[in-house]
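How it folds
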Amino acid sequence: GSEIKLDEGTLELFNHSLIYTINESRYILIECDCTLPYHYIFDKLEEYLNIFLNKGYRPIIAHIERYFKDDIDLDYIEYLIQKGCLIQINTNSLLDKKNYKKVQPLLEHHLVHLVCSDAHSLHNHRTLNMSEAYHILKNKKYDNQYIEDILNELIELKKEKKITYLE
């Protein structure tokens, strides 16, 4: 699987079965275009989520912290989770004080399902800093089981949940 950027070409790719799921499961990792105006991001997100959810996919919303200018709207995050989405934040948001302040309410309310490096590969400017993220979460005294869950989330990837054809 890979991140699916929600833009004008996404639906065409989706309709031609060219969107890859995580390990051929029903989970898809989606990201919004952060260059779009704030209100437009959430309009587009809602549009695409409805399509994906209606087709049986389980969206994982990548680096949700990037989509909010200031404070994250916890009610909106809860709404997304109730719809069936999982929420992912980047490890860099834990390492940077300004971004940590932004994601802290998500962590305190257990609204994060996954913490990932967003490194994409071993050969780019983003680093694999999972160990540093672990130490920060431990130092902030989050519940040990919650830390374990969000750093090592095991998504159920059974073959019987595989979607083989998209209309």
Strands lie at 3-6, 27-32, 58-61, 86-90, 114-116.
